[in-house]
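Final report, closing paragraph on structural work. Over the funding period we assembled a curated collection of sequence-structure pairs, and we close with a single example.
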Amino acid sequence: MINTIVIGLGPIGISAARALREDRSFKLVGLVDVDPAKIGKTLDELEGGGPDRGPRVVSSVQQTLPGKPQVAIVTTASHFAKVVPTLRQCIRHRLHVVSSCEQMSFPAFSNRRLATQIDAQARKRKVALVGTGVNPGFVMDLLPVVLSSMMTKVTAVKVTRRLDAARRRLPLQAKVGATMSEEQFRSLAREGKIGHMGIGESVAMLAAGLGRQAKPQDVTIRLEPVIATRELDSALGRIQPGMVCGMRNTATWRGKDLSIELDLTMAVGILDAEDRIELSGPPPLTLIIPGATPGDTATVAALVNCARLLPSVSPGLKTMLDLPPAGCKAR
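Its predicted structure, as stored:
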């Protein structure tokens, strides 16, 4: 049984804590969040129920140490630099870490110097850290690499992911701009305050998995609003025609003998949701997942299944390319 804590108790963190509590491989020994409204509550109370016998929310990793945690699941931020203070706390107390931080999926892409520092600290304290999730972490990077193992040569990779944001949690609908005007969306996009994080990291991980290096200056990333053509319901309110119902995020990279194209659309009202991976080469291969991999539940699954692996992984800051397959071994 692996003693585990969860740091960051938004929708994903709470779902991860619930999954840990229901899995006999784990013992949930701590809940951490800085929100004063959550401190002192149990998991059931966070979900609107009565108190349970599990741990109560505390404000620091230090306060969870009596439970002798071994692994921390961190679901606090999308930017690697913002989770680094939490990572350093965990490293100090010799906790392995799995995080949903998008930039942490391939941290050297945009934070090479900081990633090198954290890697050295983790190695010194003999703990493993990894960023994972459904995207980045699987559909648009790791899965194409795995599929490519059935080919002798790959000349191009195209991954298309289309999701109905109406099926996702409210924070994600807000992140993709649902109910905004086009002008509001573009203004926030210019400031880097809206849209999906991690598509550049997916390009870098995919390229690395195919033996190449995609540098940030060579990756072209674009973010555009998706405009509603009919009335739509969302968790943020009614979307009228002409309003933003989501976003389309693309990234491209071209090397000497390989090209990568990632195309991600998350919008309310998508009718043809799917994941599609197309590999060009002799012979070409195409993989289609109808309905697309469900983002929220898959992210929780990725976190929990990787948490099970980490105590046996060599120390350092890892990517999903470094880990053995994290199959679902829930009991």
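The chain has two domains: 2-133+297-318, 142-293. The first helix runs from residue 11 to 22. We thank the funder for supporting this effort.
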